[in-house]
């Protein structure tokens, strides 16, 4: 249904609006919206910038949002901005913004990711990104392994993972003895692979069949 709705819209824009074009950053409290726009406009076309302020005093909390027109621009900002901004993809607006801000601030001031946000710029090579699961050490890469107890259909699996920008290839394989599904997915950037794993590990596809998504070594230096 999710894939069909995005196709019917004529583009991925409705899907990307909430989850792939808006980033959340930590900024100096002295920054204005103009300062924020000036710092991030080099990565793409900005739709709007906003600074989170204390409702009582009106003072900046040192946190802000930047929304781009394209997911590729948001991804570039996350990957290339100064590490001090702690840039990540923002939670959708229909989720509690205050709890998200609290978790984000706690995570980044303690340098230890937790909760269900994607810590793109906080030592991702030492984290795993499953929601509500214990954290284990894990190296990230641009390549993912997808396992299922049911066989995959190439076109359907490609369409599912293509919802995350940057998909380079989807190679579906089948075990003739168990009839289970196995596929290798590769993205153009580690950021896209991290986001795909975060969103699709444990996803039921088809309903009742949970996908297992893990990183595969791709020969790159995970410290990048």
Automatic annotation (TrEMBL):
Location of the RRM domain: 21-95
Annotated CDD domains: RRM2_RBM45, RRM3_RBM45
Record's keyword terms, sorted: RNA-binding
PROSITE patterns: RRM
SMART domains noted in UniProt: RRM
GO molecular function list: RNA binding
InterPro entries in the record: Nucleotide-bd_a/b_plait_sf, RBD_domain_sf, RBM45_RRM2, RBM45_RRM3, RRM_dom, SLIRP/GR-RBP-like
Signal sequence segment: none
Pfam family for this entry, one: RRM_1
PANTHER family xrefs: HETEROGENEOUS NUCLEAR RIBONUCLEOPROTEIN 87F-RELATED
The name this protein goes by in its record: RBM45 protein
Source organism phylogeny: Eukaryota, Metazoa, Chordata, Craniata, Vertebrata
Protein encoded by which gene: Rbm45
